[in-house]
Amino acid sequence: MQQKADGEAMIEQLTGTAVQPLLAGWSQRLDETVPPARQKEVRDKLDVELKKFADSTHKAVEAQTAKAAEAALVPIFMEKLTEDELKTIVAYMESPVSAKFQALGPDATNAWAKRIIDATKPQVESGAKTFEAAANRIVSSSGGSSAPAKK
Asked: Where is the DUF2059 domain (predicted)?
């Protein structure tokens, strides 16, 4: 049950943890060593290789997720929960009400996120304007153009 609930998120997180340092290191190295005129071409080639690595890593982590779940999780649950508690959890997780509750997750998360966005929108927009003004001052004072860079 734990694997079903958290397995995919764990796979994505562990894959990202392996990919991120490579991405950051090579991005910095690219910026430092490749002439600007060739950076897009080189970045596209690096992206192909990075995708190969990410896909391979994802598959390797995914293959180990189920194998590691029982060995890691069973002892924890056996130590921390009584047999009756485990039976209660299993009964709930296998019940129709649990499936119904789980199905509500995306709608509930979206409604929650919308409330947060609505409540913070003025503050976020104000902060973005303050950042834009500061960035324009910094770029202008360094002799650069204050217009946003095009990618």
From this structure: 69-114
